[in-house]
Each structure stands twice: as structure tokens, then as C-alpha cells.
Amino acid sequence: MQVTEILRRYRKQELDFTGVSLHSANLKAANLSRINFTRADLSGADLSSSDLSGACLSEANLTNADLRNSNLVGANLTEINLIGAELEGADLSGVDLSGADLRCANLRNAKLCSANLTDVDLNGTDLTGADLTDAKLAGTDVTVAETQGAQIKECSLYMGIRTRANTSHHWVTWSGN
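The chain above was modelled as a monomer; its predicted structure follows.
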């Protein structure tokens, strides 16, 4: 499905685009609030400055996607693949990132207040200047990320513990092509 078709159908109030393939799509500054991109392939997509508030991107592949300055407030990003993604300046307040893979992602100056980061892989992630106030970090090792200037306060480290054995991680086998 092409970007123009997605946007046309979205404007007609269609929200469910589960499993759609939009590899390297240009969705810059798009209003996609409440859209359902569950298990979608958005690897390499440009979603910078987009409104994805309240969206569902559970188990989606956003490897190397550009989400700089995007609004993802309240989005469902459970078990999402954000390896190498650009999220600098993005607002991820209240998002559910439980079980997500954020290896080598850029979250410089991102807002992650009250976000659920339970069992998230932050290996090589840049959280410089990020605000993680009141975030849930159970099962997440923040020490493997760059955290200079990050606000990590009033965080919960012991509630809602999950184990990787209980997650599906369909994205592990995705090639990104």
C-alpha cells in the first residue's frame, strides 16, 4: 500500500493499518493520531514532526526510522523495534514501550515522563538530556545507555516486572527490506 493511499483512507476515518509495509515511506509532519500500525514495517520511514499521539505501533518495525520531534504521547509501542531510530526531541510522555528494542537509538532531549520502559533493551542508546521523570524501568538496565544530563528521578524500578520469555518479539526475524 502506498503512502498516498494510507493518508487518503486515514482522512476518511480509517484507522486500522495492521501489518502494512511502508519501508522508507515519507510521512514527515503527518497527522496520524490514533492510527493502528500494529506489526507494520516502517523501517527507514521519515515520521519526523508527525503526530502519532495515541497510536498503536505494537510489534512494529521502525529500524532506522526518523521520529525526531514527533508527538507520540500516550502511544502503544509495546515490543516495538526502534533499533537505530532517531527520536531526538520526541515527546513520548506516557507511552508504553515495554519489551521494546531501543538499541543504538537516539533519544537525545526526548521526553519520556511517566513512560513504561519495563524490560527495554537500551544497549548503546543515547538518552543525553532526556527526561525520564516518573518512568517505569523494571527489568531495564539504564547503565548501558548514554545518560549524561538525563533526568532520571522518581522512577519505579520494581513494579510490573516482565520477562523476555513472556514476549513474542516477532520483529527479531525481520530483515528491514
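The radius of gyration is 15 Å.
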